[in-house]
Amino acid sequence: MKASLFFFFLCLFGPFLQAQEAQLQDCVACDFSGRHLPRANGAGLDLHKSMFFKATLVGANFIEANLAQADFTLASLRGANFNQANLEQADLTQASLVKARLIQANLDQAQLAQANLDEAILLRASLQGAKLEGASLQGADLRDADLSGALLFRADLRWADLRGANLQGAILDQADLTGSRLGKAQLQGAWLSRVTWKDVEWETANLSGARWMDGRLCGKESIGVCKP
C-alpha cells in the first residue's frame, strides 16, 4: 500500500519537482560534470574553473556570474542566460547554446570550436581572440560585438547580424556569410579568403587592409568595396 502511494505521488508531482530550478552556490573549481540541472540559478555566483562537462543546463540563469576558465564542453545550454557573465578563457567546445543570451558577456579567449550558437544573442559581447572554428552562428545577433582577432575558420554565419561588429584581424577563412548583415562592421586586417559571400549587406563595412577572397590586400578607404 505504501509503495503504491509513493508511486502515485511520484507520478503526480515528479515532473513538477524536476522542473524546479536548482539554486547553485559559490563554488570555485567544483565538478558538475554530467549533472542534470535544467533552469539552474547561478546568477552572480563565483563558479570560475568549475566543470560542467556534458551537463544539462537548459534555460539556466548565469547572469553576471564569474565563469572564467569554466569547462562547458558538450554541455546543453539551450536558452541559458549569460548576460554580462564572465566567460573569459572558458571552454565551450561543442556546447549547445541555441537561443542563449550572452548580451555584454565576456568571452575573450574562449574556446567555442564547433559550438552551436544558432539564434543566440551576443549583442555587445566581447569575443576578443575567441576560437570559433567550425561554430554555427546561424541567425545570431552579434551587433556591436568585439570579435577582434577571433578565429572563425569555417564558421557558419548565415543570416547573422554583424552590424557594427569589430572583426579587425579576425580570420574568416572559408566561413559562410550568406545573407549576413555587416553594415558599419570593422574588418580592417581581417582574413576573408575563400569566404562564401552571397546576398551580404556590407556596403558600409570597412575593409581596409583586409585580405580579400581572391587574395588581394584591400587598400585604404575600402568602404563597402575592396579597393587596390
What does this 3D model show about the protein?
The structure is a single chain. Helix content is 8%, strand content 0%. The chain has one helix at 2-19. It has 228 residues and is low in regular secondary structure. The chain has 1 helix and no strands.
How many helix segments? Answer: 1
Helix content: under 10%
Please state the structural category: little secondary structure
Overall radius of gyration: 20 Å
Biggest sheet overview:
none
Number of strands: 0
The residue ranges in which pLDDT falls below 50 over 5 or more consecutive positions are 1-19
**Strand and helix order:** H
Distance between the first and last residues' Cα: 85 Å
Strand content: under 5%
Mean pLDDT equals 92
CA-based shape: elongated
Give a short overview:
The chain is low in regular secondary structure.
Please describe the topology of this protein.
Layout: H1 2-19
Which key features would you list for this structure?
disordered N terminus; little secondary structure; 1 helix; 228 residues
